[in-house]
Amino acid sequence: MQTIDLSDVGLRETNKTLHAQAADTNQTQWEIINPRGSHAIACGLDAPIEVTVKGSTGYYCAGMNQQATVNIRGSAGPGTGENIMSGKIVIEGDASQYLGATGHGGLIVVKGNASSRCGISMKGVNIVVQGNIGHMSAFMGQSGNLVVCGDAGDALGDSCYEAQFFVRGSVKSLGADCEKKEMRDEHLTLLQGLLDEAGIDADPKDFTRYGSARNLYNFDVDNAGAY
Amino acid sequence: MCGIVGLFLKDKSLEPKLGEMLTAMLVTMTDRGPDSAGIAIYGGESAGRTKMTVQSDDPDVAFDGLDKTLAKVLGGTVKMTIKSTHAILDLPAGTTATARTALDEMDRGIRVMSRGDSIEIFKEVGLPKDVAARFDVPSMSGTHGIGHTRMATESAVTTMGAHPFNTGDDQCLVHNGSLSNHNSLRRKLRRDGVHIETENDTEVGAAYLTWQMQNGATLGEALESSLDDLDGFFTFLVGTKDGFGVVRDPIACKPAVMAETDQYVAFGSEYRALVDLPGIENARVWEPEPATVYFWSHSSAPTSSEKAA
């Protein structure tokens, strides 16, 4: 285990050290202490390493992540895991707004709640939240899965494409063109897999699936007068 | 961007350190807005007295003999403490309106930063660390306070454009965000006789709250109606004589983090601002919900009310 004291080493050096790890590095376990809510911690990693941040983080922690596993032992600030490509991010506390925005792949797990705009414009990332999520989540979500064990806020999945949403609790309101869907066997299997990967004990049968009604996909000529 | 901090002390033993704690929080937020900074401190009141904080760009001339001149007009003792470009005027209770008129008539370019029994507002152009040092904020004690560091977007970088804005006796407002309907709202409020000095959007927000309260609304009601009448982005932190309140617009894209322990309630634009507070590791830390008005007060239990969509 390599330990980096962020308040001592500084952000640039810390990220530079992590970026220097090659695919075949022997130093696979890293620990960052004294994060003190700093921005952009462990951003842009691209190696199969595991980084554990001991405390709460600020904006954009683990953004653009590839391959790496980043554990946040605290709460995470806005834009955590933005544009994640692969790998895994686990947040022990709460996550602030636009978690995993535009994420293309990988998995993000939140043990607490996620705030507004969770998974906005998601493009393939899987996000599993043990608590609740805020308003406008998965706005324009294109692909990937958003799993919510608690409740979802206003306008879930507004203007979504092919991203799927599984919510166990209530949904305050659905966004434009988002609708309730049937839970078929393949969805139960998919959801069970995601919950297992996230290490969350929940029964897929308790969830409801939501997704695009696909009414906004094509221009409706009857609406021409509105433009 | 702008950065906001606030600290409401439950533990009286921390009161002598309020200025020091609030300054450290505000300095951490410097990179959210380095244009200008301000702080409102509620330092406590004394019976039969009230206070005004005033500012001048030429303090040597403007404040010269000001206490004696005011004492004559008001007919009581006036104590003046000069701190850089600001002066704290300690006045007989109930004389702030008369004092304000007298200051206008003197025509010395003196501007009123705050009025009230407990509040003192200090604000200037410059970095938070310089502004705090200039007014010796770290040495101030008090029950609660709020601070702001500004990145100007809607109007010029001036002292009067800096936050906090005094919205009424012992009330003040700081804002992170930008209001988009401030021009039309300013015209409407001016037609109703509300004095608005600058082209700043937050001043309009502050004037709006004052106007609502003059028309009988409580501060809580005024904040709730601001959710209907103010268009734009805002996280507001509002100081009152005995506490503070928080409200975010329904979109809530401007960040806000709160922390509460047995000793204090703290607000920061980011968690970074809170990391040096005592016992923060075990504090309850959360984000205030959008379109919900929160209040903490020394005289009553905390409240939060969600505005129906």
TrEMBL record, chain A:
InterPro entries: Glu_synth_asu_C_sf, Glu_synth_lsu_3. This is Protein GlxC.
Automatic annotation (TrEMBL), chain B:
The lineage of its organism: Bacteria, Pseudomonadati, Pseudomonadota, Alphaproteobacteria, Rhodobacterales. Pfam families: GATase_6. It comes from the Bacteria. This is Glutamine amidotransferase family protein. The keyword Transferase applies. SUPFAM superfamilies: N-terminal nucleophile aminohydrolases (Ntn hydrolases) (SSF56235). Residues 2-299 form the Glutamine amidotransferase type-2 domain. Keywords: Glutamine amidotransferase, Transferase. It comes from Octadecabacter dasysiphoniae. Coiled coil: none annotated.
